[in-house]
Amino acid sequence: MKKLLFIICIAAFSIANCKGKEKSDDTTNIGLLAIAASLGSGITEIPFQIVAGDDTSVKCNKLITAHSGSSADVKHISESMNFYIKDARFYIHDVKLVNADGSTVDFTLTADNKWQTSKVALLDFEDKTGDCTGTTETNTSIKGTAPSGNYVGIQFKVGIPFDLNHLNSTTADAPLNNSAMFWAWASGYIFMKFDWLAKEGAGSSNSFHLGSVGCNGSGTSVLTTSCTYPNRPTITIKTSGSVSWNPTAKPVYFDVKNLVNGTNSNLSSSGKAYTCMAGNNGGMGGTTAADCKILLNNVGVNETDGTTASTQSAFYLKP
Fold first, then answer.
1. Which pTM does this prediction carry?
2. Fewest CB atoms within 10 A around its CB: which of 89, 161, 183, 217?
3. Which residues 6+ apart lie within 8 Å of 247 measured at CB?
4. pLDDT tens digits, residue range 24-82?
């Protein structure tokens, strides 16, 4: 802050004493003011980008390629050469920027009555084209405020905070009024929804829906007070070697190839259809199912108790 005030003072002093000087001096002073303004503007938006390995042009209704290390095997994702996204959405909250020393600074969300409240944001990469479900609108960034700084990473929690997770979605504020991302009052919201198609042979339709499991209560009559498996992972990602990361210019990458790594949904190659509903009070393919274990671990959830696992592979940064 002292540095910023010093620059502003220098710029202001220069302008006050440059009336009789040449036009080039005016340009210099304007540049000083621009620097001062940028230092004080802070971080107001953080982009997210969906990718699949080396494929950075991932979208609905498009063949997803993902290089896996061999020139003869450049499109394998969940062992499929014909992989298409059907749905890709997730909530996040408690966002923080990470300093080189490991300390964090809050990124305070700004409510917009559509994609964010002041406590939670919905990232939405599906656009309802082709086989994709959902809506035509997408949201690929979060908006808010944080001071400028020399950051090396970001931390956030996937899902809805407990105090907001067991509401009536029909009366909740956007984006918590999205019925497609809600199970029931007791189990709450779908924290992450990722559905895909593998079109080999007869084709498989696959789902990974993450949410809290084993929740008591039933709505307004018996309120939910706890969930056995919260399934609300804290994601902490940093650049390697403490290299600076620009939160506004460099996106948070959501790698769907890494998310489904270890699965095989290719029916023509000993694969199967995956239905992992890690929520809905267990549901089909609940938390302890082998299929869910793979996907839960990849997104940073410990399947034994629903806490944050020591590793995750679905999110990463580049400096």
1. 0.85
2. 161
3. 43, 46, 97, 107, 146, 151, 154
4. 444 444 343 333 333 446 999 999 999 999 899 999 889 998 765 555 566 789 999 99
Angle at which helices 23-41 and 2-16 cross, to 10°: 160
Query: What's the token pair of residue 236?
Result: 């902490």
Nearest Cα to Cα of residue 260 among 251, 271, 247: 271
Is residue 144 within 8 A of residue 107, CB to CB? The reply is yes
Torsion sign (Cα): 34, 35, 36, 39:
positive
Which residue type, as a one-letter code, is found at position 191?
F
Pick from 194, 219, 17: nearest CA to 88 = 194
Residue that the structure tokens 């909250």 belong to:
93
Mean pLDDT of 181-190: 92
Selection from 275, 169, 278 nearest residue 214 by Cα: 278
178 DSSP 8-state letter: -
Strand order in the sheet with 108-109: 108-109, 141-146, 43-51, 252-255, 315-316
- Rounded CA separation 315/76 (Å): 19
- Relative to beta strand 204-210, strand 275-278 is parallel
Bridge partners (DSSP) of residue 197 are 84, 205
Element holding 238 (H helix, E strand): strand 234-238
Alpha-carbon distance of 89 to 48, in angstroms, equals 12
Q: How far apart are alpha carbons 196 and 269 in whole angstroms?
A: 17
E-assigned strands of 107-191? 108-109, 120-124, 141-146, 151-158, 182-184, 188-189
Mean pLDDT for 157-177 is: 95
Strand partners, 92: 121, 158
